[in-house]
Write a structure and sequence with these properties.
single chain, alpha/beta, DNA Methylase, Chain A, domain 2, 2 domains, three-stranded mixed β-sheet, 11 helices, 10 strands, about 30% helix
């Protein structure tokens, strides 16, 4: 059985996909305690380091769990994403001078020190803007690897949302596509109204109370319309969008809140997790906002599983 270490593990979306593909997860690193607790709850067999990754060295992981076949991880995207109005103007500053952006370099540090057979790092496509692509090539070359920038869209892999991400790897990733789009209603239509007694048996499927004023506002929204708009002259984003039941959802983010296609209420955490491809047995701990963040700030398990199955094929053929 091939082994994996997951950096920036969050609530375990990346690990979930690899576990479903029958990889053995050796260890995970997650600095934010509530997410780490969710991870440990769902993967009790894994050694979880609740620690700032800058303070951990590869020798510690090697001593505790050994060298993995595969290293995976998704460093925070805030310094790079166009949705962040605070990102630095110079692309290189986002990597080298932003303390959060520098976490990408710490992923590369682990690549260099662990020398895995395969690594896969997930980021937003904007991590390739300007001179960043060449900078990343250089940094990975210093770690001993040639890299490929694989841009995948989650809706191609059985995930009911539009979500393009770049998966930086030492191999070209060509996972098998699902074959058709999964719609919002296919994903959540079988879940009961969270206000009904039977909903109590479904984890993370609690009704989110709304003020009378807020509910009056969302009652006026049609499919695809949003209550909130933000951005600047070049970037425009939405939130509190009423989902179209027969299309895929927009990108799920940590701060995303979606309105049910037919009811005048917000999606529950479980419904939002369905849009990310999480199975219902993956439980989210912490307060409600932490749960929403844990769902949206992850690699969709459906995408992760497709990648994992392709990586396994390459490892078995020794073609990497």
């Amino acid at each position: 059985m091939y082994t994996v270490i997951d950096l920036f593990a969050g609530a375990g979306g990346f690990s979930r996909g690899f576990k479903e593909a029958r990889f053995k997860i050796l260890a995970a690193v997650e600095n934010f305690k509530p997410k780490a607790e969710t991870y440990q709850y769902n993967f009790p067999e894994v050694k979880v380091y609740i620690e700032d990754i800058k303070k951990i060295h590869a020798i510690e992981l090697i001593r505790d769990v050994g060298i993995p076949d595969v290293l995976i991880g998704g460093p925070p995207c805030e310094p790079f994403t166009a949705a962040s109005l605070k990102r630095k103007e110079n692309p290189l500053d986002r990597l080298y001078n932003d303390p959060i952006g520098q976490l990408v370099l710490h992923f590369i540090r682990f690549v260099k020190d662990l020398q895995p057979k395969v690594f896969v790092m997930e980021e937003v496509p904007q991590v390739l803007e300007g001179e960043l692509e060449d900078a990343l090539k250089y940094e990975f070359e210093q770690a001993g690897y040639e890299v490929y920038f694989n841009i995948l869209d989650a809706q191609d892999y059985g995930t009911p949302q539009r979500r393009k991400r770049v998966f930086i790897s030492n191999i070209k990733l060509k996972p098998k596509k699902f074959g058709r789009r999964i719609t919002v209603w296919e994903a959540i239509g079988d879940l009961p109204d969270p206000r009904l007694p039977e909903a109590l048996e479904i984890p993370n499927h609690q009704y989110v109370p709304l003020t009378y004023k807020k509910r009056r506002k969302i009652m006026t929204l049609g499919w695809g319309e949003s209550l909130h708009y933000f951005g600047d002259s070049t970037r425009r984003f939405t939130n509190w969008t009423r989902l179209h039941p027969y299309k895929v959802a927009p990108t799920v983010k940590g701060g995303s809140r979606f309105i049910h296609p037919f009811d005048d209420r917000l999606l529950t955490v479980r419904e939002q997790a369905r849009l990310m491809g999480y199975p219902d047995y993956h439980i989210f701990l912490g307060g409600r906002d932490v749960q929403y963040d844990s769902v949206g700030e992850a690699v969709p398990p459906t995408v992760a599983k497709a990648i994992a199955e392709y990586v396994k094929e390459k490892l078995e053929s020794e073609d990497y």
